[in-house]
Amino acid sequence: MAEISGPITGGSKGRVFAGPSIDLTAHGYLEKEFFLEGTATRYRPRPGTELGIDGRWEVEAVETSDFKTRFAVYRPVDPQSFNGTVLVCWNNVSAGFDGYNMDSPEILESGFAYAAVTAQRAGVHGMGDHPMGLVQWDPERYGSLSIPSDDYSYDIFTQAARLVGADRPRSPIDPLEGLDVRHVVAIGGSQSAGRLATYINAVQPLERVFDAFMPFLYFGSGSPLEVGDYVFNPAEPGERRGLPGVPCRLRGDIDAKILIANSELEAIACYPVRQPDTDRFRNWEAAGTAHVSAQSMRARAEAIRGEVDAPAMDFTGINEVPLNPVVESAYHHLQAWVATGTPPPSQPRIEFAGEPPEVVRDDDAIARGGIRLPQVEVPLATNSAVATPNGVMGFLGGSCVPFPPEKVRALYGDADTYLARFEQATLAVEKSGAILPRSVEPLIAEAKETFQKAIAGS
Fold first, then answer.
1. Strand, helix or coil for residue 66
2. How many CB atoms sit inside 10 A of residue 246's CB?
3. Which of 26, 88, 197, 236 has its Cβ near the most Cβ atoms within 10 Å?
């Protein structure tokens, strides 16, 4: 098992990179960062087998290498507030630097502990001609870190999870300072969801570390096991943009529970490997959403302002139906699932038809079926995963095409009528379990502003 050191302090910046922007103290939480170092193993397909679409992959350990990385831990100050579950986050590095989302009301108010793990090389060393990894951001604090290859990321993730699990070593350093851990859940979004898919299919049967997995914004393909010194860089042209993933279902012959939370965009990508709900598997798809939303990207840009050298961007025209309320609800239901055995409610899937299969859309070009968030059920615009040509976020941002003011008036008349229908739709999706009660009022408040803008044509 890797050696742990910390809590880490100091450095030229004097703080943890990519930490939450909220006031943790006000929520009764604290933040500590640790280093872990040791020897990690890489895996390859067992001879005579392949990484097939059924997800039942057989792998073997083939080589080891030294590594040193970091993980940040967030936990309730009061042990009585801890709900018994540690969320172990596979930090996302698609932007060229380490990222994770702790600004979550459900995580903080429900008493989760959270370990944000830097498992991939780009998070430490950056990518491209202008790297923004940890060692560049604060050499004094992070300069000793090193990950030789993403081939070792799966075992690094395992070792970090063991250090925060129920059977973790309690001395000399316990990153959770005595908390009674009962469940360990792996989470990760987008590229990290692809890493989790490979972990589920290849590594979990060997290591059995996690009680549950929550991949979100998952494109239906596992990440490669073997990439050597290659570092994924979405800015690279042509064939260097990324190694192909492995389209696959998530294996159903493991004890761990799996909950996927996807937007319309990933539902399209996942359609060829779509699988039914079971007693250990749930798949949620939200119609009219995209991989990112204008609201989420504005919030993210604000959060990293001053952290990295990233250009200012205008997110006008991309999708404006955030998936976040659905992800928040997924956390809530996942906790009930591991703690009490109560499964998340099954949700309707987005409708597909034709050959090749395509999303079925209504007269406003809005997807039919799926989780019906109120902005989709009572629309003021066509929000979808269909990207605007040359859009600022490419295909990830989908699109938002506002209805003309005269159409808005014809549909709803006045603000009171619109808001009554919007509230009814919001309460309906809350009753389905796809969003939480705490999301209702913010959605209605945003709808009031959106309606005024729609009437004004702005």
1. strand
2. 22
3. 197
Phi and psi of 305, rounded to 5°? -60, 125
Residue 345 CB partners (closer than 8 Å, separation 6+): 333, 432, 433, 434
Residue 267: phi and psi, rounded to 5, are -60, -35
Residue 339 and residue 20: Cα distance in Å, rounded?
A: 26
Closest CA to 402 of 298, 318, 295: 318
Amino acid occupying residue 290: A
Closest by CA position to 231, among listed 157, 123, 338: 123
Six-digit token pair at 199? 């972990």
What's the whole-model pTM score? 0.94
Secondary structure (DSSP) of 392-422: TTGGGG-EEEEPPHHHHHHHHSSHHHHHHHH
What's the start-to-end Cα distance of the chain, in Å?
57
pLDDT tens-digit series, residues 363-410: 999 999 999 999 999 999 999 999 876 555 578 889 999 999 999 999
Q: In which element (H, E) is residue 295 found?
A: helix 294-304
Rg (CA), the chain: 22
Secondary element (H or E) of residue 332: helix 324-340
Phi, psi of 71 (to 5 degrees): -145, 145
Cα–Cα distance, 263 to 385 (Å, whole number): 8
DSSP letters, 194-232, are HHHHHIIIIIHHHH---SEEEEES--SEEPPS--TT---
Distance of alpha carbon 335 from alpha carbon 343, whole angstroms? 9
Cα distance between residue 420 and residue 412, in whole Å: 10
